[in-house]
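1st attempt posting a full record on here, be nice pls
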Amino acid sequence: MIKQRVQEGELLYMGRSAGAMAASSDFAMTYEPNPMLEENLLDGSTAGLSLAGSCSLRPHASKSLWNVPGDVFGYAVSHTIVRVANGDGLYCDQGHCVIAGKTSATEPDAFSSSGMHLPRVVEAYRSVYHGYRPEQPNFVTSAMPETPNCRLVLSGKKPLVALASSGLDDADAKDAFDSLMRTLRPADTASMANPYGGLKVLVLDDGALLTKSFWNSLDKDFANPDAVTYVKTGSQTSPEVVRSLTDGFSGFSDGWIKSADCVEPCGGLGSFGFDPGAFTHVSAFDMCATFEQKQALFRLQSHGLEPQVDMTLAEGSPCIQQLNDLLDQASVVVASSGNPDLLGYVFRVFAPQFGEKIAQRVNQGSVAVLAFGAAAMAFGHNFAAAATPSLALQKLLKGNFQGLKLAGQCAVIPGWDKDKLLLGRMTTITLLRFSCICHPL
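the predicted structure (as tokens):
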């Protein structure tokens, strides 16, 4: 009735926010989607009243990553995507839309204007919404976390891999890691009373290399005892050199990266009973890259300048043996969070031999791996849906977002964003969404 009267010119419809989205062609990409309502009351359909022809209203005008699925959705269903900033109004007359306010942003062709994230779009949304129909949930069981089926194909012992968000912050996460460590140690030893005594831990801090607080002693987070810094990692690169190459760390991330050996209540391993001196911090890139390669990486991140040198570790480099020796001495490998693209580059492109060595030890069941945040994404099956993609580093990855696959077919996505679930729907990947520690077996 409303649609008919609007089309006949007898009724003026004014929709605000959600009311405007519901009146447009489709409201699939809203701020706060409600899967329960969509799958049960809407029967999976998010078609709106189409009062403005084929226009679909989007809730913001910025170009942040979470807008990309809206662009792709519009492209797939031949909709014109219109983003409206807060405080602006939208007037549409049978598909011709005008924004009243300070912002004007229409996207008739999503692929021509979303080049920044296009490689991820192609990778993660290959089939987009075609044929997508979510299963009808049980109102009780759907509220419980699913047991992941990572479909691991193994030739050795049970792999000991734990993927965590920012730390082992709650009792369940600590119990899960404790159980993993007890599996690592033989049951007939006195170490069952303290499964951490005598173990060596190798901490990989590569993900933090493009964070300001890692290098800048003047940064407010540098003095945080729980943060990873160049001092804790034992960096072989002078922070003043990095400052000079990047014009004061331009393009580097704000905030700080949690150190794996921080103590309660930060969620690190410092309170778990490991021996003093058990932790060895290292950055594979900082340790093994030439000055020219470091210069190229930092300038790429800060200024977008493409490297003019080979960005892989030289075959037969003695540094690989040094890394392998550190790994051979370790019973536990912890990968710190940070930049998932950087981690993917370091362990898959720069030093793939070392990444393969880690995977080999995991498949043998001879080392336990704990990966935090971005490292959990990079060490999983695929990190295309990472929350903070780096346009510059994508050049080094060459559009390939395959991870180390330490957890079989499982891939970690950040948070509970509905749009990223399409990656799992349209591929064979099992998605693990961050809210706690995930033990993929």
